[in-house]
Each structure stands twice: as structure tokens, then as C-alpha cells.
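Students often ask why inverse folding is considered easier than folding. One informal answer: many sequences map to the same fold, so there is more than one right answer. In these notes we will look at a single instance of the problem. The structure comes first.
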């Protein structure tokens, strides 16, 4: 599991807006990595998608 989580903003931007991507590196403990891998296996989702969904569900806008 060597995926780096990135978020790509929608491509529907106006000429005054710039398409923005920010890349982060996430360090996990072995237990956290195993838990994420197990969840990905159970759901069929990629780790980057799981992390992105969790971030999108944060109560802060």
C-alpha cells in the first residue's frame, strides 16, 4: 500500500480559477496500515478513495 492521497478539484473551472492539486504523504503505524488495507479489501475501494471520502465527510467546509 504505497498510494499517496491526492485530491483533484473538479475540472469544471472558469478561466479565472486554476485547477489545483495538493499532494500529501501520510505516515501510518503498522496497525493503521493493516486496518486500512483490510477495509480496502472488504469494500473494494482504493486507499486514496477511502481517505478522500473521510476528508470530504469532515464537518468543516
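Output (designed amino acids):
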Amino acid at each position: 500500500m504505497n498510494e499517496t492521497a491526492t485530491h483533484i478539484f473538479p475540472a469544471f473551472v472558469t478561466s479565472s480559477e486554476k485547477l489545483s492539486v495538493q499532494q500529501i504523504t501520510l505516515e501510518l503505524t503498522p496497525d493503521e496500515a493493516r486496518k486500512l488495507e483490510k477495509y480496502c479489501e472488504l469494500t473494494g475501494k482504493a486507499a486514496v478513495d477511502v481517505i478522500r471520502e473521510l476528508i470530504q465527510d469532515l464537518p468543516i467546509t
